Amino acid sequence: MALNSNVTEFILFGLTQDAGKQKAIFGVFLMFYLATLLGNFLIVATIKTSRTLGSPMYFFLLHLSFADACLSTTIAPRLIVDALSQKRTISYSECMTQVFAAHFFGCMGVFVLILMAFDRYVAICKPLRYTIIMSHHVCRVLMILGWVGSCIHSSAQLLLALRLPFCGPNEIDHYFCDLQPLLKLACMDTYVINLLVVSNSGAICMVSFIILLISYVVILYSLRNHSAEGRRKALSTCTSHFIVVVLFFGPCIFMYTRPATTFTIDKMVAVFYTIGTPLLNPLIYTLRNAEVKNAMKKLWCSQV
Predict the structure, then answer these.
(1) What is the pTM (predicted TM-score) of this model?
(2) Alpha carbon 119 to its chain's center
């Protein structure tokens, strides 16, 4: 039985109620999910096995790919199965688990992007001290702090969700369990809880985005003293990071920094950071990175 609730299960509406579109959603998102797993686990395998990809940047990229694969696995399989299912129910405990997991791996992605930006800042602005500042020990400690911070954030989100009483409607107008759609169903005044959600998720999104923007401004400013070749290489790496940051943080800021109102576009916006970003990250980081492409070729040739 659910805590503070007469509801033991929820009904997910999914992306659409149209039966014809459901089949298209099944096919498209199944391909997206398989491509996401393939791309991200290929990056993980490549970095793990390659001797040339031992720098901190690739250490962080490995964790980003792992977090992306887990975030996609938290959301996509249920969306795909529900697309062909007549009864799209999710139990209360499964719903709460999804809230925790989605925020845990999403927040982990945020922290890794910040660490990657910090790595680029040190590499470009403090090149002589890079190996000291970004030692293997420091990188491991930073990643542990990232995992702990993600756990604290997602635990706070879960505690807020567990405090919501549900005594009437149990239909969630979304394709996964999250705080905003759950707040609409709660039979209580959710003003304070919504403020807590905004101050937790919203603040993490906004503060992280501002930190990343400032770091890129500092990096770009410092590049004026570099050679043309150095500027080109640094800009190539930073451009990849910046594309990922905009694709991820734009939708997150839209979703989590506003009052408890829902828009019809919310579900499509959520697709960007739950399905789209984990799919695009491997493409962005491999197509624009010669070292990763060469390491992948070696891995593929050795397997063949």
Answers:
(1) 0.89
(2) 19
